[in-house]
Structure formats: C-alpha cells, structure tokens
Amino acid sequence: FCKFKNQVENETCEKFLVLRLDKKYQFLSKEFQEFCYKHRIARQLTQALIPQQNIVAKRCNIIIFKKARSMLFKRNLPSSLWLKAISITNYLITIFPTNTNNVKTPIELYY
C-alpha cells in the first residue's frame, strides 16, 4: 500500500485523506493502523462480505464481468481467456468518456 500511496500522491499532487476498507485481517494489523495514523489517513472500516456497504464497488465489478463475458461470448472465445477479457474490459472503461463524468475519461478525472 505504501508504494501505491506514494505513486498516487506523486501523480496527483493530492494527499490521501480517507481510506475505505473492509474488515479483513490485512487492514486491521497494528502496523497498518500505525501507518495510517502517521500519514493522517482516516480509515473507514466496513464489514467484509456485506455488499450493501460496498455497493459502488460491487456494481462496478458486475459491469466489468458482464462486459467481459459478452466479449468472450460474441467472439466464441474460450473461457481460458477470462482474465484477459477482464483486463481489456477494465482498460476500455478507463479510456472511454462517460456522460456521468461530463464526457471525461476516468484517466482525465484522475489527473
């Protein structure tokens, strides 16, 4: 997480203020708590495996899975290409603008 945090902060010139996490063991360690405290990152803990608290992320995953499945089905490709289809779908979502983002791409919003 430390490398990811540094990369995001360097690329955006913004500081992490809040981090929403589920209550899985890797996010509850004393070391991670101290890291967040040291860097003044507020942690919002949600229950693990409860989709109501992670509805936005769950919905995004459903959209990605449906689009990847459609790509494989439309071209009659084997299911062994599932991970590649997921990667391509995620990439396409990232580079295409959407109406909800005022016709900007997620990359444009990030930077």
How would you characterize this protein structure?
InterPro entries: Integrase_cat-core, Retrotran_Ty1/copia-like, RNaseH-like_sf, RNaseH_sf. Residues 1-111 form the Integrase catalytic domain. Keywords: DNA integration, DNA recombination, DNA-directed DNA polymerase, Endonuclease, Hydrolase, Magnesium, Metal-binding, Nuclease, Nucleotidyltransferase, RNA-directed DNA polymerase, Transferase. This is Integrase catalytic domain-containing protein. 53% of the residues lie in helices and 9% in strands. The protein has two domains: 2-49, no CATH class; 55-110, no CATH class. A two-stranded parallel sheet has the order 1-2. The protein has 111 residues and is mainly alpha-helical. The chain has helices spanning 2-12, 30-38, 55-74, 82-95, 106-110, and strands spanning 18-22, 42-46. The chain is globular and about 50 Å long. It contains five helices and two strands. The longest helix has 20 residues, at 55-74.
Give the secondary structure arrangement, pairings included:
Blueprint: H1 2-12, E1 18-22, H2 30-38, E2 42-46, H3 55-74, H4 82-95, H5 106-110
Parallel strand pairs: 1-2
Helix pairs in contact: 3-4
- Residue share in helices? 40-55%
* Total separate domains: 2
Q: Please report which band the strand proportion falls in: under 5%, 5-15%, 15-25%, 25-35%, 35-45% or over 45%.
A: 5-15%
Protein structure class: mainly alpha
Largest sheet: 2 strands, parallel
Rg result: 17 Å
Instruction: Report the strand count.
Output: 2
Mean pLDDT: 87
In the sheet with the most strands, the strands line up as 1-2
**How large is the count of helical segments?**
5
Contiguous uncertain segments of 5+ residues: none
Overall 3D shape: globular
Distance between the termini: 20 Å
SSE arrangement, N to C? HEHEHHH
